[in-house]
Amino acid sequence: MITEVTTRVLWVRSGGRCAVCYRDLLVSGITWKQVPLGERAHIVGRSTSSKSPRGDDPLRVEDRDAADNLMLLCGVCHDDLDDPANLDVLTVERLRVLKRAHESRIEQILAVPPDNSTVVLRMPGIIGAAGVHIDRSAAAAAVLAASRIAQFPFGPDRTGLEIDLRRVTAPNSGNEQYYTECRRQIDQFFDRQFLPAVADGSVHHLSVFALARWPLLVHLGARLGDKIVTDVYQKHRGTDQWAWPTSGEDNRFSVETIVGDDADEAVLVMSMSAAVHVREVPTELAGRTTYRVVLDGGVTPHYDVIGTPDSLRSAERAWRDVFADIELNRKHVRRLHVIGAAPVSACVALGRAMTRGVHPALVLYDRRDDGTYHPALEVN
Hints:
About 30% of the residues lie in helices and about 20% in strands. The chain is α/β, with parallel strands linked by helices. The protein folds into three domains: about 5-110, no CATH class; about 115-235, 3-Layer(aba) Sandwich (Rossmann fold), CATH 3.40.50; about 255-380, Rossmann fold (3-Layer(aba) Sandwich), CATH 3.40.50. α5 packs parallel to α6 and α7 runs parallel beside α8 (about 345-355). The mean pLDDT is about 90.
């Protein structure tokens, strides 16, 4: 006999949700009144009778009414579980896996303190000729892995904060109109949605998921600034996931300075996700003081060069070191020309490292199909 204590344990472990379809078992889907709809289903049947689903398992009869052998289900899933036609698929082992996965997920979610919620901001764009998709569930899984609960509190369909740049005409090399329109949409989002949400206290922590042309990522970072605590995520090719790997490459970055003339313009070359040489800098910038952000330890630049949050923090320090040197030694510099290749998270971090009115404007260069670099966007 299933005791009342066992029933309570089962409901708590299951979070009041069906362990198979995740339906809320405390609310009627017709009247929306609070009605307990959960049913206790045996994994191994209660008796050893041939009519008892999976009853031929060697589990002791006295253990069959224990919480470890029960699943909290809705009526539909309970019927499916015990239908003779499904017993060859819904085996004891399969059901135990489902039970463990569901109850572990509930435990993990409820173990996160309430103040560890985060508002998700997504910015999908166009890479090459194709629009990219940033799935809401993938973003939620990534922040959960970082012990936070994703919130999508804005919009009638609760999609959260989103800047969808996929609707802008696909970029051609040197297409200034594309960058102008994308910047307009980013600025409009911040002025109409983001800043009012921050002002009324709706956003206290932010998780950013962006995938677009790199100059737009820097502009996004510049608009975000550093006033809100923010975690920046990127998609990792090694795992095809947005969550930071538990054992990713922990690379470090440093800044090399090549002192040039006293012009009011300088150059920043990023050799992070791909190697970029000083000789590739446009000829009109030759002779300018040049900062090179490079990998320590002789590591070759590659796409997943930032594989841990610590690596990202190292990149952030490199950006701050560049700006600090300009403030200390080159106050006359008014424009910093930025050329190179860097991961998504580092690009957003570069924009966030800027202080408006203090640091020089950033002139961001896009690489054309012929391998040459041309100005795409200026952030100031």
